[in-house]
Design goal:
By secondary structure, the protein is mainly α. It has a domain of 173 residues. It is built from 18 helices and no strands. The longest helix has 26 residues. It is globular.
Length: 376
């Protein structure tokens, strides 16, 4: 019994958002008993597209694509400023394609490794925080950069022009602020960091990469509504099964289940006239700020799913939940990845990390909110 309760507590800590979503879905099902209408709740296109992209990115990671790219760029960095700038921009650009959480899983451990290897471990705290901010802000720039973008562009049918207006001004300002922040501090020289992934001989990359590039092209055609999602999802699943079925482990199944639970919750709430009217009145005209504030408490992905059920201004909501990834540690769940990696290496610096993380997030959130106030 003790082992079961300990395992349950550990599961709740690791999958807090899923557990909260499940409880909300369950509670709403008590008010609206399950019926045939439940089948209309989920946006299966979003779920299928998320599955495809997570499978493809898992394939890229298994081939070491991002480490090869990182090593190539780092080989040209010979000063701390250039090294910091390279790593921050690498996270910013990578997150546009491989999502913010995968970017941090890939590059944060190696940032910590590099800075310990060159004897600059004390600088790693600020840099890992800047990399986290870069991944969260860079991911807003494309429809596939993060789960909330994938979801909102799927359910809203936003044009590429509307999408660009909702995110690109903020991504541009973010890039300028990140470059300025990364270039501050000392500019001492250092010896090369060496291979990020070890010295083992690597197989040729390009031939093995071709199938995953083809699958990514198909997924992008789905994003731009040039192809239906169903056959592309089936082709992706079959290809992954034939190429490397272990990649299915790289799919965040609990994220898909979290989306499903929120679909049930929002669908049920919309069938409760009083609650639906109240939430619509609270959100209407305040989508940007509602998305930003809700993200600070429940994180930006659940905020996007929840608030999307009570507004038609998806562009403002898209801006709000993307900017909402800044602020608290839970505002973007990807930030927890950095915290876990950093705390594993420097367990005695958890409080210092939270302080530096919060200060830098507020430093970026302020100018971005000011821009939002002007553009809105």
């Amino acid at each position: 019994m003790h082992r079961f309760s300990a395992a349950l507590r550990q599961f709740f800590r690791r999958q807090t958002v899923f557990c909260a979503a499940f409880l909300l879905a369950f509670a709403s099902a008590l008010a609206v008993p399950p019926d045939a209408a439940y089948l209309s709740y989920p946006d299966f296109r979003t779920l299928g597209l998320l599955f495809c992209l997570m499978s493809i990115v898992a394939g890229f990671r298994s081939l070491g694509v991002f480490l090869v790219l990182g090593e190539s760029l780092l080989a040209r960095a010979r000063t701390l400023r250039r090294l910091s700038l390279t790593l921050v921009l690498l996270c910013f650009a990578s997150s546009m394609v491989i999502t913010n959480d995968v970017t941090l899983i890939t590059f944060i451990p190696f940032t910590l490794l590099i800075f310990r290897r060159i004897g600059e471990g004390r600088r790693a705290l600020t840099l890992t925080v800047l990399e986290t901010i870069a991944a969260n802000l860079g991911s807003m720039a494309t429809p596939i950069g993060n789960p909330q973008n994938i979801y909102l562009t799927s359910v809203s049918r936003l044009s590429m022009g509307d999408f660009a207006w909702a995110v690109l001004p903020y991504a541009t300002l973010s890039l300028v602020l990140l470059a300025a922040a990364a270039l501050r501090g000392g500019n001492a020289r250092f010896a090369g960091a060496g291979p990020l992934g070890g010295d083992a001989e690597r197989k040729p990359l390009f031939p093995a990469l071709l199938p995953y590039l083809a699958l990514l092209a198909l997924a992008l055609l789905v994003v731009f509504r040039a192809l239906p999602w169903e056959p592309v999802c089936a082709v992706t699943a079959a290809a992954v099964f034939l190429l490397d079925r272990r990649l299915f482990r790289g799919v965040d199944w609990f994220l898909l289940l979290t989306f499903l639970c929120f679909f049930v919750f929002v669908g049920n709430v919309r069938r409760l006239p009083e609650v639906n009217a109240l939430l619509t009145a609270l959100v209407a005209g305040r989508e940007l700020w509602a998305g930003l504030l809700a993200s600070q408490v429940i994180s930006n992905v659940p905020a996007a799913v929840l608030l999307s059920g009570f507004t038609a201004d998806y562009g403002a909501l898209l801006t709000g939940v993307n900017l909402g990834g800044l602020g608290t540690l839970v505002a973007s769940l990807a930030s927890l990845i950095t915290f876990q990696f950093y705390a594993a290496v420097y367990p005695y610096k958890k409080a210092a990390f939270l302080k530096v993380f919060t200060l830098w997030n507020l430093a970026f959130l302020g100018p971005l909110c000011a821009l939002a106030a002007v553009l809105a």
